[in-house]
Amino acid sequence: MQYVTLNTGAKMPMMGFGVFRVPDLKECEDSVYEAIKIGYRLIDTATAYHNEEAVGAAVRRAIADGICTREDLFVTSKLWVTDMSNEKTAAAGIDASLERLDIGYLDLYLEHQACNDYFAAWRAMTDAYKAGKLRAIGVSNFYPNILTNFCECVEVVPAVNQVELHPYYTQEHGLMAEESAMDVMHRYGVVPEAWAPLGGGRYNPFEEPDFLAIAKAHGKTVGQVLLRWNIQRGVVVIPKSTHVERIRENFDVWDFELTPEEMVTISSHDMGYSGSRAKHFEPSFVRMVLGKE
Ligand SMILES: NC(=O)c1ccc[n+]([C@@H]2O[C@H](COP(=O)([O-])OP(=O)(O)OC[C@H]3O[C@@H](n4cnc5c(N)ncnc54)[C@H](OP(=O)(O)O)[C@@H]3O)[C@@H](O)[C@H]2O)c1
After folding, report:
1. Would you say 171 and 199 are in contact if contact means Cβ atoms under 8 Å apart?
2. Percent of the chain's residues with pLDDT above 70
3. Which residue lies with its CA nearest to atom 21 of ligand 1?
4. CATH code reported for the domain at 3-289
């Protein structure tokens, strides 16, 4: 396992396990427990995934079974936009996450979207960070102009920005702007974390000839190559699967290294924009996230 150091000084594992779209609580708990058994130490959930209870239960079970300690784990959750109307609602949202997880504290808590009053919500997150309830605080889906304004204006700079990051959307090139999302994160010392590192089921990287050739050269799978590519460029990955063989496969990326040429070949598939439904610059997407449309 490799780790990256956050602006808090804490070490964050570069490989984690995501649980988006795992609404069945038993399936979620069992998948997280299996993932911890396999060696994952970072788990990524959110208020909006409605499975924080299951993640907390899996963590408690793994600790009770002696697989790891609480300190070995790095658990992340996120504040949903409906809790981000003001400091009071945000503080209540944070406490509700902590209560549902029931694992003492959170290693990282993110604002899920740059929607509603994200400055007021950040003040509540800063208070919870100072109180030790949240060991680090960060953001998600904060695009370059929004992240720049935010980092320049807040008291505590976000430790992490979790955004869509895979070979079809590398975020290495600015869209009609000089600085890309990756440039801005590097400038402010914000660690990039990839959601949909395998394409999230919205793309089909698994049959891409370039990726298949690189995978064959290393005796690895396309999924392992895509995860390794992000890790090698300093991006934390949190692939999701509810199949134990894939959970194991996705974690097995520590015994090979992509060459600089292979890194460039993989990055050359960048489309420069998100091909998913989550188009954060679209006004209709913002209204949908806010529940107005
Ligand atoms: N902050 C945000 O706005 C945001 C948005 C989206 C996601 N996230 C986080 O990021 C995590 C990962 O993103 P994601 O779940 O959208 O996408 P992902 O991890 O890129 O892809 C998951 C999909 O790939 C399949 N899969 C997993 N491993 C595979 C393998 N080795 N070979 C072939 N297929 C494989 C999974 O199917 P099976 O489960 O059937 O194996 C699932 O359909 C989420 O779980 C969540 O924690 C955050």
Report:
1. no
2. 100
3. 200
4. 3.20.20.100
